[in-house]
Specification:
CATH class: Alpha Beta
Structural class: alpha+beta
CATH topology: Alpha-Beta Plaits
């Protein structure tokens, strides 16, 4: 659910819902996220990419690797896939990286899978994000029952961090007053960009997005005319650009924690469809 209507500022911050749990059973959003973005060639998405990515999942599962990740497939914008792994600290990320390198069998399987997967891609890049608790609002700790993710990126003008904090705090106060269902978690881009913030939220279905638009009036009324004017002025002063995109969570390309699978096994680990019953042989003509 959007915490700011596009009608207000031509941008949105987030949607209501719960944020993902971290890779190592942490409560609340992870401090550090390693995010890998793959741009998939036309005609190579869907089942073809699922099959390729399943090799990474199989390698992690065979090694019984304790660090988990989940995949997002774009439902808007250029065709791409995102892979997010959460850690409680940069040190934990380093420990996981070094342990993977020491596991020769796992490393070999991952390299083999990467080489094959590269044939399906136009390009790839990576980002490291750092959680900002002060700019987040009621984030929940699990993605177990979620199906969609909205990701909104804000690129700030140089030297406008103070104004950006004022924008988000003004929005948070209005949502508190409105008592609506908005939730989000904010991350600063630590590596891979500069003066950028990324806001994540998830939905159980697109009905949650319908709810966000239905609650827009509550937010406007809570903000008031003076608050709306101030919000627009602050946003124009500090935000260089913004981009909101919708993604679907892809269980076929994810390596989810056991608790997610137990909570919603039909989504995360669906059983193969039963083969249709064979038709009885036709009786010979009498």
């Amino acid at each position: 659910m959007k915490i700011l209507s596009p009608a207000l500022l031509g941008l949105s911050l987030a949607v209501a819902g719960s944020l993902f749990a971290a890779a190592q059973d942490m409560q609340g959003p992870p401090k550090v996220i390693e995010l890998t973005r793959e741009f998939v060639k036309p005609g190579k998405a869907g089942a073809i990419h699922d099959k390729s990515e399943s090799k990474f999942v199989a390698a992690m599962a065979a090694a019984k690797w304790p660090t988990h990740y989940f995949a997002l497939m774009s439902l808007s914008g250029k065709t791409r896939a995102l892979y997010l792994t959460g850690y409680p600290s940069f040190k934990a990320w380093e420990d996981d990286y070094l342990a993977t390198m020491k596991n020769k069998a796992l490393s070999a399987e991952l390299e083999k899978a990467s080489e094959a997967d590269g044939e399906l891609l136009d390009g790839m890049d990576q980002f490291v994000l750092y959680y900002d608790e002060d700019l987040s609002y009621k984030p929940s700790p699990t993605l177990a029952h979620s199906k969609l993710m909205e990701i909104t990126t804000f690129h700030l003008k140089p030297g406008k961090d103070k104004q950006w904090h004022e924008v988000v705090n003004l929005v948070i106060d209005a949502h508190k007053k409105a008592g609506d269902s908005a939730h989000w978690a904010t991350f600063e881009v630590a590596y891979g960009g500069g003066d950028e913030y990324v806001i994540f939220s998830d939905d159980k279905s697109m009905a949650d997005i319908d709810t966000s638009y239905a609650e827009d009036k509550q937010f406007r009324d809570a903000l008031g005319d003076d608050g709306l004017k101030k919000l627009r002025e602050l946003a124009a002063d500090c935000i260089e650009s913004s981009d909101a995109e919708l993604f679907g969570i892809n269980p076929a390309q994810s390596y989810p924690p056991d608790e997610w699978v137990k909570a919603d096994p039909d989504f995360w680990k669906p059983k193969p469809a039963a083969a249709p019953a064979a038709k009885p042989a036709a009786k010979p003509a009498q």
